[in-house]
Specification:
The complex is a heterodimer. Chain A is an alpha+beta fold. Chain A is 35% helix and 25% strand. The termini of chain A are far apart. Chain B is 36% helix and 15% strand. Chain B is globular, with a radius of gyration of 16 Å. Classes of the chains: A alpha+beta, B alpha+beta.
């Protein structure tokens, strides 16, 4: 088996290669997921890609910026920059929190935002806050108009997304949270660093007066893909947030998750902890707003 | 039978430009150790969990096992030996020795690379920042306490010498 390599200098070149080699090429950016996978498959015939398209030279796609009422993140932005970006810390601190819990500092220097989403692990760390922030994913392919997909329709299952093999993620964007938005992110891992989530949760609520006008709740590692908990969100929406309401919301979360048992935790533990972490996250979000 | 396709690779290792030929799936770790003789870069897990292969790539600490060699084309790599040598050790290396921060020694190269990246960015790190900076480096002798103390001591020493 022979593998070819190309390192395009601009996006259109990358897209044209991806189109020409459709189905036989793999994009590589940070490589933090791809390389261990390739290593595991090295001896299996027909599994490795025929062409590696190294997109790390597309420096134009590494940015974090506020553009009016929208925050835009280039697909090639390293995870380490998310954790320290002033824009992210100001408008979406839950995304900085999640970035800081992804892998370890060596991995964060290589891993990219686009890669974390395209990889589509059910435990993808940045997907959870992005779901709660109502993010959208911009994809491009050669000779076509770009398309923009809400992130809750992007993931299909473990390592599966709606991205076609000739498409590339170009940008992730989300609306700048309003003045009444309060948010929190919590991750339960087996260690403080270098841990894959057992459960992670992100909450964004908009509270005006005493009423919760809007709620977005997202979970990681408790379903075949990162998910929104729409039923739990509905319980909070339009209501005054009280202890019994939070209890009802968290109880509902137990039936919204669909976890599995693996080496890190049992399905039952994950289901229980999803509910417990959601309660802590809602309380933390509310406290964050008061400070 | 198909032959492996290779590509030219130029990279600077510890300030010296090197040229070699590599195939696309070769990692930077493999090329450093097997083709360029840099055995101070260690291979532990080979999948980004242990940090034994940490090097500085354009100033950032990364796992050489998770970086394709070709991704380092025309870039600068610094290994443990580029930080300091036996004849001319870096304060981090001196502190690791004096503080007994080395037991079996396998993680040491990666630990020092991570610590160097930290001190380059934050000359006066808190203990928490030190701990976070080596969160990608596993010491299976579990000698973390002395490693953290050694990094603190090196930071103090570097501060005095500035």
């Amino acid at each position: 088996m022979t593998m070819e390599y190309f390192s395009p200098g601009n996006l259109s070149e990358a897209l044209s290669l991806l189109g020409k080699w459709n189905g036989r090429a793999t994009l590589v950016a940070g490589g933090t997921s791809l390389l261990p996978d390739m290593r595991a498959n090295l001896l299996k015939p027909g599994v490795l890609p025929e062409l590696l398209i190294d997109i790390t030279r597309l420096k134009d796609l590494s940015y974090i910026k506020r553009d009016g009422k929208v925050i835009r993140i280039g697909a090639l932005t390293p995870i380490s920059e998310m954790a320290s970006s002033r824009v992210i810390l100001k408008y979406a601190p839950i995304l900085a929190d999640a970035a800081l819990r992804l892998g370890n500092h060596l991995v964060r220097n290589r891993a990219t935002m686009g890669g974390n989403l395209a990889d589509a692990s059910p435990a993808a760390d940045t997907a959870v806050p992005l779901l709660a922030l109502g993010a959208e994913i911009v994809m491009e392919k050669a000779g076509r108009k770009r398309r923009q997909i809400p992130i809750d329709r992007f993931f299909l299952g473990p390592n599966k997304t709606v991205r076609k093999s000739d498409e590339m993620i170009k940008e992730i964007l989300f609306p700048k949270p309003g003045p009444h938005a309060r948010m929190a992110y919590l991750k339960l891992g087996l260690r403080n660093a270098a841990a894959i989530s057992v459960v992670s949760v992100a909450v964004v609520v908009e509270i005006e007066g005493d009423r919760c006008e809007k709620a977005r709740i997202a979970f990681g590692a408790v379903a075949p893909k990162p998910i929104r908990a729409y039923g739990s969100e509905e319980i909070l929406t339009g209501q005054e947030i009280t202890e019994p309401l939070i209890e009802a919301c968290c109880e509902r979360a137990r039936s919204e998750v669909n976890p599995i048992t693996d080496i890190r935790a049992t399905a039952e533990y994950r289901r229980s902890m999803a509910s417990v972490l959601l309660k802590r996250a809602i309380q933390k979000a509310i406290r964050a707003g008061r400070e | 039978m198909k032959t492996l396709k290779t590509y030219p690779l130029e990279l600077s290792v510890n300030g010296e430009w090197k040229k070699t030929e590599v195939s696309p799936e070769e990692t930077l770790l493999h090329v450093l150790r097997e083709k360029l003789g840099h055995n101070e870069v260690k291979e532990g897990c080979g999948k980004g969990d242990c940090g034994a292969c940490a090097v500085l790539l354009d100033g950032k600490a990364v796992n050489a096992c998770l970086t394709l060699a070709l991704q380092a084309h025309r870039q600068k790599v610094v290994t443990l030996k580029g930080i300091g040598t036996q004849e001319k050790p870096h304060p981090l290396q001196e502190s690791f020795v004096r503080r007994g921060a080395i037991q079996c020694g396998f993680c040491t190269a990666g630990m020092i690379v991570s610590a160097k990246a930290l001190l380059d960015e934050k000359p006066d790190p808190t203990r928490d920042e030190i701990r976070r900076s080596i969160s990608g480096n596993l010491c299976r002798c579990t000698g973390y306490k002395k490693i953290i103390e050694a990094i603190e001591e090196a930071a103090r020493k570097l501060k005095r010498s500035r």
